[in-house]
Batch of 2 targets.
Target 1
Amino acid sequence: MRKHILPVCWYLLLVSITIQLHAQNPLVRNQYSADPSARVFGDRVYVYPSHDILATEGRGRVGWFCMEDYHVFSSANLTDWTDHGMIVHQHKVPWVKPDSYSMWAPDCIYRNGKYYFYFPTTPKDTSYARGFTIGVAISDKPEGPFVPQPAPILNVRGIDPNVFIDKNGQAYLYWSQGNIYGAKLKENMVELASDPVVLGELPNKGLKEGPYLFERNGIYYLTYPHVENKTERLEYAVGNTPLGPFKFTGVIMDESPTGCWTNHHSIIQFKDQWYLFYHHNDYSPTFDKARSIRADSLFFNTDGTIQKVLPTYRGIGVTNAQTQIQIDRYSHISDKGASIAFLDTANKFQGWKTVLDAAGAWVQYNSVDFGKKNPKSVMVRALSQAGNTLQIRVQGINGPVLADIPVTGGNDWQVVKMSLLQFKPGRQNLFVISKENNRIEIDWTSFE
Ligand code: FUB
């Protein structure tokens, strides 16, 4: 079960609802989320995703993307995320076509004391654009409140805005509409300062969208989803200036293993580590317009090329041993006798369980912080019809045994608590192993 802590201050409830979430992948556990634009503001990471909802008759187009608002999420440690609530709604933007439900992939950037939130959507006045254009909302704080501008940015037609501010202070807006476009932004951040140009030399065949540009060691990385085969994968090209020309250089992430047709990403450096934020469809395996954002670590080679990122469940951040450790978000899993399933297929936001059904089957969950204070016991929420014993080890599959936990047979979930045989301080990789052949399902484990 996931833990949601609602604020006690009634006046906060009137403004927006703030919810605390513990998360690995996916990062957002209380709603669908897509197209994550991550930014480092101060000592926190803020993520501005799209917010997928399910269309119904009269609300969006059934079977297609449906988005009416945006939330912002932030974290200081990449494990505990705060949902700051809704920051922009289509019905609060004066120029948006009210029945469009097309608040697609956004971005946000800081300049001169203000936060500028860019979002693509459909205007009711087609003289701005037939189809999508891009608007801006402005705030004094990264979590809002954001005030939408009365009109969209002129001379922009397309989706997926991304903003980059170069070392000399010049800001650029990027977006996509078949091709990827770029233009300079004025100092006011809400008007173009140059005519849009098509960025080259990118692959000609197959859809390209979702540009995200960043600079590292004098290299400008233009990164983008591209349909090289049947679904999108994340690629990058490099150049010497913010508007190119760029040279295709490689693939950052292959096509989604779960068949999610889109991917959309951002790349940040936070406390000396680079991260890729992207999306899959974790909570909606059979409908890929209801997506979930994720993050994994990203590494550069010494020549500046990017190593391919493999999507993981474990994701990023350290997990406090005293929280409910969701081992179904594993780092590694045994080849035989171990699998993951939804706890409740009728309510997928309940999350997942680990299923072990062979003696010796195991899951490994990395980076659990035990701190310095000795925990005395371990708890596990588990269900085993025939009964089984779980073994908890650290450091390796043959590493020190912390506990053997007998789970008696029955049809109900039970929380079983056992004293620890020994304790290993600091950050540990955790192994949960089935000792017998009887099937056992595990929701979470925790130390106290
Ligand atoms: O979320 C709607 C669209 O799907 C985005 O704008 C694209 O980048 C793709 O992720």
Target 2
Amino acid sequence: MNHRLKKLQTWMKENEIEVSFITSSENVFYLSEFFSNPHERLLALVVFQEKEPFLVCPGMEIHDVKRSGWAHEIIGYSDIDNPWDLIHNSINKRINAVKKAGIEKEHMNVERYEHLLQLFPNASFVSAEEKLRMLRMIKDEKELKIIEEACALADYAIEVGCSEIKEGKTELDVLNAVEYALKKKGVTEMSFSTMVLTGANAASPHGNPGQTKIQQGDLVLFDLGVVVDRYCSDITRTVAYGEINDKQKEIYDTVLKAQLAAVEVSKPGKTAAEVDLTARRIIADAGFGEYFPHRLGHGLGISVHEYPSMTETNQLVIEEGMVYTIEPGIYVPNVAGVRIEDDIYITADGAKVLTKFPKELQIIK
Ligand code: MN
Ligand code: MN
């Protein structure tokens, strides 16, 4: 049994949970090292306190499961099987009555829940999500190494993006060049849809890249991430095309100051709220408080958004091994949109910054 499954089993024993039924691709991967995107088909990892766990997957994926190193039972079903009958049999071989079952309440759907109610008619259902989020929040050495690799590719992507900025090019021209360059390096998946936003478009924190042409005096915002071995990176840089005005410069300098301060204060023992507020106060003191409408950052790993959530109210204490983003932004409509985002890893001494592309204002000629 791997150490992650053991931790889940310990939690199950402590809380008298006889069975956990894990269905999200991310958590199945975290616990089994097998990743699949099964679309509408059922993927499930069924875990018991003591008995051998089993993995349920579409039959055509059985070989992939074996190749991933999963050494326990695999239940493959065809498109004409009813997987629930097979699951019922495998559970009955292991345990009889279930009083408490762990599920991912935010991921489970009603159709599957109704099947589980039939399998465990006397059970109450508790959330296993919170426990898994807390486990996933602390990264081990192997995870850190992969994330560092994903961050190095994100740095490379920004470098390519900057070199592609030229008079007359559109946001999509630059975006395509960035993703093409990554594909040539073997990247098959981005953490989310790549963002290249210029001028007024950059003032929308979640804008959509399109046919807008980059013009002299624009701030161009890149927000992108690369997936390596199932782990995500997430970087934002805002660069200037030609000379920008004093107001734009003031906004850039304020975001940079806030970002650097939040990195500096990130260390074990601080709370997420303290880190968020460090940046938020700097932005508010400069008079831009109302233009920073989102949290400071988020944890990062198998999912691009995970724990810890870096908000001004989260009293969660920062610990060694966490990986999270620091991404303050100021978005003033028709003036400027600036965000600077790094991924950091918490060591005993403080933050190790994993994304390394320069943060001092880059002026592209
Ligand atoms: Mn981002
Ligand atoms: Mn982010």
